[in-house]
Specification:
5-stranded mixed β-sheet, mainly beta
Length: 233
């Protein structure tokens, strides 16, 4: 089976035993990443990640406003986003893998990684792929610090920021749909035994932002005032 690629991304399906039914493991925190933090790109804040730490392995996921920055989901893993009339979403999902978050000597090659992007509302799911090995423009981290691209045999960190509108992640994606999206990142041993999993949701179902709610409220008040004036007239 072949999938189209975009931005040096080639999505290849992988089969990992037991990952489809794997629930959240360990502690899920809306927090920042362990050192070296988030190093993919410049000016990105190391905050508002959902994190699963299993021993020295840390998996992180976050949803951000594209070209703006982090979204604070509060005490949940649901990030409220807006729709877009263009082909790309107004939001990106960011992922991070650190196999030495608490020390140790594990490298990226010691694990198999799996990611899926789903449209919960439409009931569709994109191809399952290994984001560490399949995405060519990831940022890596190892003995030489941050690198362009990832060497799984020498490095212990891999990160990237991707848009669901990029070809291949979720076929049929429409950035203007008021849908709920789910991104899942998992890790397993080379034997297929599951190790950890982290999940985030991007909620574009149309819940207005606080500022919008205020404007709507003012509009309703103004409409009521006009109606009262008409009755008096």
């Amino acid at each position: 089976m072949c999938f189209r690629s975009f931005r040096n991304v080639t999505l290849v399906p992988i089969v990992v035993a037991s990952l489809c039914t794997l629930a959240h493991a360990g502690t899920i925190n809306n927090t920042s990443l362990a050192p070296p933090g988030f190093y993919n790109g410049s000016g990105n804040a190391n905050s508002n990640f959902e994190v699963d730490t299993e021993g020295n392995l840390e998996l992180g996921l976050s949803i951000i406003k594209r070209f703006v920055g982090p979204i604070n989901p509060g005490n949940s893993n649901v990030y409220v986003v807006s729709t877009s009339a263009g082909p790309l979403a107004t939001w990106n999902f960011e992922f991070s893998v650190n196999t030495q978050a608490g020390g140790g000597t594990n490298l990226l090659a010691n694990f198999i990684y799996s990611m899926t992007v789903s449209d919960v509302t439409a009931g569709t799911t994109g191809p399952t792929f290994d984001p560490v090995r399949a995405i060519m423009d990831n940022s890596g981290f190892g003995p030489s610090g941050k690198t362009a691209g990832v060497n799984v045999n020498t490095e212990w960190g891999a990160q990237n920021s991707e848009n669901p509108g990029f070809t291949g992640f979720l076929p049929g994606f429409n950035a203007n749909n008021h849908d709920l999206y789910k991104i899942v990142l998992t890790a397993s041993l080379q034997t297929g035994a599951p190790v950890g999993s982290v999940t985030v949701f991007a909620d574009a179902t149309g819940v207005p932002e606080p500022g919008s709610i205020g404007l709507v409220g003012l509009g309703v008040i103004g409409l009521g005032f006009v109606r009262r004036q008409k009755r008096r007239a």
